[in-house]
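Fold this sequence, please.
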Amino acid sequence: MQKVSTDNSETNRELTQHILGLTDKIYRSLEPGIPHEGMSRWLSSDLTVAQLRVMLLLHTEAPMRMSDIATHLGIALSTATGVLDKLVAKGMVVRKPTPKTAAWLYANFRRKVRR
Protein backbone atom coordinates (compact mmCIF):
# COMPACT_ATOMS: atom_id res chain seq x y z
CA MET A 1 0.00 0.00 0.00
CA GLN A 2 1.40 3.37 -1.02
CA LYS A 3 1.76 5.97 1.71
CA VAL A 4 0.00 9.28 1.03
CA SER A 5 2.32 12.23 1.41
CA THR A 6 1.57 14.96 3.93
CA ASP A 7 1.69 17.59 1.18
CA ASN A 8 -1.01 15.78 -0.81
CA SER A 9 -3.20 15.43 2.28
CA GLU A 10 -2.79 19.13 3.02
CA THR A 11 -3.68 20.01 -0.57
CA ASN A 12 -6.80 17.84 -0.36
CA ARG A 13 -7.84 19.53 2.89
CA GLU A 14 -7.34 22.98 1.35
CA LEU A 15 -9.31 21.97 -1.74
CA THR A 16 -12.11 20.56 0.41
CA GLN A 17 -12.29 23.76 2.46
CA HIS A 18 -12.35 25.84 -0.74
CA ILE A 19 -15.19 23.76 -2.19
CA LEU A 20 -17.16 24.00 1.06
CA GLY A 21 -16.66 27.76 1.06
CA LEU A 22 -17.94 28.03 -2.51
CA THR A 23 -20.90 25.80 -1.66
CA ASP A 24 -21.75 28.09 1.23
CA LYS A 25 -21.58 31.15 -1.07
CA ILE A 26 -23.88 29.49 -3.60
CA TYR A 27 -26.32 28.48 -0.88
CA ARG A 28 -26.42 32.01 0.49
CA SER A 29 -26.93 33.52 -2.98
CA LEU A 30 -29.77 31.12 -3.74
CA GLU A 31 -31.55 31.63 -0.44
CA PRO A 32 -30.46 34.98 1.02
CA GLY A 33 -31.44 35.78 4.58
CA ILE A 34 -31.48 32.18 5.78
CA PRO A 35 -29.17 31.73 8.77
CA HIS A 36 -26.22 29.39 8.55
CA GLU A 37 -28.23 26.74 10.43
CA GLY A 38 -30.33 26.43 7.26
CA MET A 39 -27.33 24.77 5.62
CA SER A 40 -28.69 21.35 6.64
CA ARG A 41 -31.62 21.96 4.29
CA TRP A 42 -29.19 22.65 1.46
CA LEU A 43 -27.09 19.60 2.23
CA SER A 44 -30.14 17.35 2.34
CA SER A 45 -31.31 18.52 -1.09
CA ASP A 46 -31.59 16.10 -3.98
CA LEU A 47 -28.75 17.70 -5.96
CA THR A 48 -26.19 15.23 -7.27
CA VAL A 49 -22.46 15.91 -7.12
CA ALA A 50 -22.47 16.51 -10.88
CA GLN A 51 -25.31 19.04 -10.54
CA LEU A 52 -23.49 20.78 -7.71
CA ARG A 53 -20.32 21.00 -9.82
CA VAL A 54 -22.30 22.62 -12.63
CA MET A 55 -23.91 25.05 -10.16
CA LEU A 56 -20.47 25.98 -8.78
CA LEU A 57 -19.18 26.59 -12.29
CA LEU A 58 -22.18 28.64 -13.35
CA HIS A 59 -22.04 30.60 -10.11
CA THR A 60 -18.59 31.88 -11.06
CA GLU A 61 -18.61 31.79 -14.86
CA ALA A 62 -22.21 32.19 -16.10
CA PRO A 63 -23.46 32.54 -18.71
CA MET A 64 -21.80 29.63 -20.50
CA ARG A 65 -22.43 27.46 -23.54
CA MET A 66 -23.00 23.73 -23.07
CA SER A 67 -19.71 22.83 -24.77
CA ASP A 68 -17.78 25.19 -22.47
CA ILE A 69 -19.44 23.67 -19.40
CA ALA A 70 -18.49 20.16 -20.54
CA THR A 71 -14.91 21.24 -21.29
CA HIS A 72 -14.43 23.04 -17.97
CA LEU A 73 -15.70 20.04 -16.01
CA GLY A 74 -13.95 17.42 -18.14
CA ILE A 75 -17.16 15.56 -18.93
CA ALA A 76 -18.81 14.40 -22.14
CA LEU A 77 -21.19 16.78 -23.86
CA SER A 78 -24.01 14.25 -23.44
CA THR A 79 -23.35 14.09 -19.69
CA ALA A 80 -23.41 17.88 -19.41
CA THR A 81 -26.68 17.94 -21.37
CA GLY A 82 -28.31 15.48 -18.99
CA VAL A 83 -27.14 17.33 -15.88
CA LEU A 84 -28.28 20.71 -17.22
CA ASP A 85 -31.64 19.36 -18.38
CA LYS A 86 -32.32 18.21 -14.81
CA LEU A 87 -31.21 21.55 -13.33
CA VAL A 88 -33.47 23.40 -15.78
CA ALA A 89 -36.38 21.13 -14.83
CA LYS A 90 -35.75 21.90 -11.13
CA GLY A 91 -35.81 25.62 -11.91
CA MET A 92 -32.24 26.11 -10.72
CA VAL A 93 -30.75 27.06 -14.09
CA VAL A 94 -32.13 29.08 -16.98
CA ARG A 95 -31.61 28.24 -20.64
CA LYS A 96 -31.67 30.92 -23.32
CA PRO A 97 -30.98 30.61 -27.06
CA THR A 98 -28.04 32.58 -28.39
CA PRO A 99 -28.61 35.01 -31.22
CA LYS A 100 -27.71 33.69 -34.68
CA THR A 101 -26.56 30.22 -33.50
CA ALA A 102 -28.12 26.95 -32.45
CA ALA A 103 -26.28 27.08 -29.11
CA TRP A 104 -27.87 27.68 -25.73
CA LEU A 105 -26.55 29.78 -22.88
CA TYR A 106 -26.97 28.59 -19.30
CA ALA A 107 -26.89 30.60 -16.10
CA ASN A 108 -27.89 30.25 -12.48
CA PHE A 109 -31.47 31.33 -12.12
CA ARG A 110 -30.51 34.40 -10.06
CA ARG A 111 -28.21 35.72 -12.79
CA LYS A 112 -29.17 37.40 -16.03
CA VAL A 113 -28.13 35.88 -19.35
CA ARG A 114 -26.63 38.71 -21.37
CA ARG A 115 -24.57 37.35 -24.29
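The first strand starts at residue 64 and ends at 65. Residues 1-5, 111-115 have pLDDT under 50 and may be disordered.
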